[in-house]
Every structure is written in structure tokens, then in C-alpha cells.
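Quick start: what a row looks like.
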Amino acid sequence: MDFEIAAQRLAKDQKSALARSRASRDARAASNKARREAQAAKAKAEARLREKKLQSERNAKIVDRVVQCVRRVERRLGVTSVVASSSSVVNESSVQKSAGRSSPNDNKSLIDNNHSILFAQGWKLQATSIHGEGDKIALPPSILEALTSNNSALDPWGSGRNGRPLAFRIGVLDPEYAGFPASEKMKAFVDGVRETVVSSQQMTPSSMQTSMSSNDNDENMSEGSDNEDNNDDGAEETSTQIEAYLDELSHRYISYTHGTVVEFTQEDGCVGLPEPIARALLQQNSHSMGRSNERCGSRIPIKRTVDPSASHLSSDAAADEDGDAMDIAPMNDSSGDVQTEKTPGHLAYGAFDVPDLAIEITPINSLPAGTDCTFTPTASSIKNGFYKLKDVKAVLEQSLMRTRATLSKGDMIRTWRRGVSFDLIVSSLSPSEFGVVSCVNTDLNVDIGPPDDDDMADLNIKPEHEVKGSGQSEMGQGRLLSEDTAQHQQTEVVTAEMEPNPPQVDLVPEPADNKVEGVCNIQIRGRSTTGENVTGRRRFDVESTMNDLFQYASSICGADPKVLRLVTRFPRRVFTLLSQEDQGQINKDVTLKKAGVEQGQELFMIEYL
């Protein structure tokens, strides 16, 4: 009995010892597994932290390089921000926020919430309409105070070494601008920067550190010197950066152009736009900078500046459902009032439409000086007889060079000649990298380009740009507006429709171009034998005979010299080519000087006997 009890107790103890042994073995195995799992988890966490830190550094590097490129392009153009310099520092929190989103197609996440400070910041103002024929806007006096303050390097009067006034970029801000980058070219540029940064981070740690230090030094040096930018960056890289910058601008703004300031008299928060600037913002064309002109017009709400003194119109404006009555302003019906109200810079109540969106005015202190420009006449200008103008040089000088200080691609220049308007579109500029030039203190070589074929086909107008004029060169052959017409061209004839077979005559040679003494610039106007208006200009030596002058007149109008008489105005003198001298009837062998045609200039009108 005692033996059985002892045996059972022994078996129980053995079973208990075996269970404890198994439990201990299982515990040790679980502990080792847990330790391995913990070590693996720790290694993964450290790897994630390293990857996150690397991604954060990578994104910060990408953002920094993109910002540096934008700043570099703006320094090259001379764009100046009007906000504090501290705001140009990229927010570090946004970079950390975007660290985990590094897809090549997710460029927007890199610079989230920072697109507003990537570009130089201007003043956000509301548009009003002012009188003026050029590109000169009106700004508030507070902006003048900011420009002339001690801490401002901007000179609104152009007293610097180039003598050019301060220019401004005038842009209609796009309320739907989603953020930087929005344009395809800028996205491609950011992707290229990303690839460069990623490839540099794939180097060995020591070489990567050396490369990053070298790049940082280069960027710090580029921050302080534009000359080093030009030396370090290749022409192709610079061109790519500028194209990406301009493409992004075309998304930031619905439309934009450039101009200068006429006076600082606007109310605070307002900018006065003359009709040419408002038209450039509201009516883009195929030559305009930015995206397709389909974005304009329908996307930009418009308004008209209302005279606040016209209180009797307020009730009518409120009753109009569409709000159009609010745009109606009293027009200047009195001819006497028109003269006083059309002072450049003064408000033009209800005269034309202006954008009803925020206008950003950004100062530019070093626009490139223009060297070449091509104007394309519109269909309406051709219908008005642009190619029949006798002196395009005079038209451009009076209507363009005296009213504009800048030229932007796509701008429509309205010129006038004897009460007839001619609209010209700026189709190309040189230098062309930014699409805008200054035309102050520079010799501008002007071409007249061919009209748009689609417009001509729609209006059934046959282009007449083959016709040459005394102030207009042949297509593709530019000329300086500062040139003297007589020195630039010799014998040139402008006609509405040239006679098929003009008479062939032998004309006396013109004096040498460098000869001034004893030379008279003679212009002849009248009608041809077919009734068309004709004119011609030629240089004559005053020792030439009256027969030479009449032969030249005959070559212009196609009539026999003996049936013509040449008439001067103020005082009126009549010259007829006859055999005797009697009351203005001049012998053909008499010299111009003896006939009273002196050195200088003379105008003759053709009349028929």
C-alpha cells in the first residue's frame, strides 16, 4: 500500500517536472523570438526614420533649388518684391508635411502653401479706368511713399544710369490658381531638379556630403551675384528656367502685360488703367504671352468705373438684375468737357471696361532695352488703308514712341493718322527671352509683319504689304525710327494701286548720301492718270533743272510733263514747263535754285492743265 502511494507520488512529481521543463523551454524560445522581433521592429523603425529624414532633406533640397532658380530668373529680369524679405524664406513645416509624399507626379506637395511667396510679390489693387493713350498707369500716393523710402532701392523716375523709368508687371490674378507648380514646363523642371537631387543622394556618404556642401556654396554665391549666375549657368539651362518661369506666370495670371506710371493720384487700393492696358488684359490674341486667349474674356469679369457724384443712377443700377446698370456712367457729351476730362491719368468714368478681379502690380527696375520689334496690322487696320499710308515712320513716332515706354508681346498699339485709327499687334520682340522690352533710350528697329491669314480670309481682304512707302520698309527689312526718311530710302513711291506699266524715263542721279549742302528733299503728291493717289520723295541737287523735276513728277503720275503743273503751298507758287518765263512759267533748262527751290525741303502738288 505504501509502495503504491509512493509510486503514484513519484509519477506525479516526474510529470510536474516534465511540465515545468517544457514550460521553461517554451518560455526561453518565446523570449528569443520576442527579442528577434523587437530587434527587427527597431531596425525597421530606424530605417523609416532614416528614410523620412532623407526624404525631408531631399524635399528641402528640391524646394531650395527651385526657389533659387525662380529668384535667379527674377533678378535677371529685375523683378522686385514689395514685401519683407523674411517672407521669402520657405516654411520648414510645409516641407516636413510633404516629406512622405514624394511621387514624381506629386510636385505640388513639395511646396504646398508656399506658392504665394515663390514669386516676387506686388501690390494687390482694384482696377479703375483712366484717360491715356499709352501704357502709363496711375497708382496711389502710398506706393510713391514706399518707392521713395530710405529702405527702397526702386527709383520711379528713372534717374539711374540707364535713364529708364521704373516699369511694372500688370497682371490679373487667377483666383483658380491651385498652387506651385501648375504649368507643365514648371512641373517638368521640378522633376528634373528632383532627379538631380536623387542621383546626388545615391552617392557614397562622404562624396554626397562633399557634393552637397559644394552645391550649397554655389547657391549661396549665386544668391549674392547675378554675374556669377550668368557665368555658372549655361545658356540652355538659363533658357529652360526662363521658359518654365514664364509658363508658370501664365497660370498665376489670367493675363498680364507691362507699363509705367503717369502719376500717383489714385485712391488707396486702386490702380488706374488706360484703355490700351485694359484691352491688353481683357482681349488677348495669338501673339499674347501666357496661355490661349480662350481663357480671357469669359473668365475675367468686367466692370466700369462709376462716377460717385451720379447718385441718381444708383437706383437704376440696383434695379437691374444683371448688374449691368452699375456699369453705366455718365458720358462726356459736351465737347468742351471732353478736353478737360481727357487729361492722362484722370479718371475716365464709364469710358471702357476694366477687369473686376485683383490686379497685381509688381515693379521691374531693369527691363531689357529693345533692339528689334515687329508690328502686325489687324484686319481693320488694313481695311482703313494702313498699307496706303505715305509715312509710317511719322505715324509710329507720333502715336507709339511718344505714348509708350514698354512693349510686350501681344500688346495692341493704336496709332492715328488724320483721324483714322490703325491697330498694330506686337508680334515679336528682341531680346525675346521675357517677351517684354523697354523702348526708352534705345534705337528700336521696326518691321511691319504680314497680317494673319485667317483674319484676312474671313474679311476677304487681300494683303497689300508688298507696297512700299517713304516711311515703311519692305517686309522683313527693319529700320530705325530715329533714322531720317530721306537718308534711309531714296526714290520710293506709295500708291493705292500702282499703274501696271509706268512710263520709263531717265532721271538725273541723286546726290550722294553724305552730301547735305545744296541738296533739297522734294516730295510730290497728286493723282495719277487713273485717278489714284500717288506720292514720291527724292533728293535733288539745287543745280538740277526744272526739266529733271518734271520728269520725276511724270514718272510718278504717268502723265506727259507738258500737261502738268507743280504747285507749292504757303506761299502758293505755280510752275509750268513751257518755253518762256512768264508768271511762273519756267523754262525747262532753268535750275531749281534759280526757280526759287532752295536747299532743305519742298512739297509740290500735281495739277493738270
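That is the whole record. The CA atoms of residues 48 and 54 lie 10 Å apart. The first strand starts at residue 123 and ends at 129.
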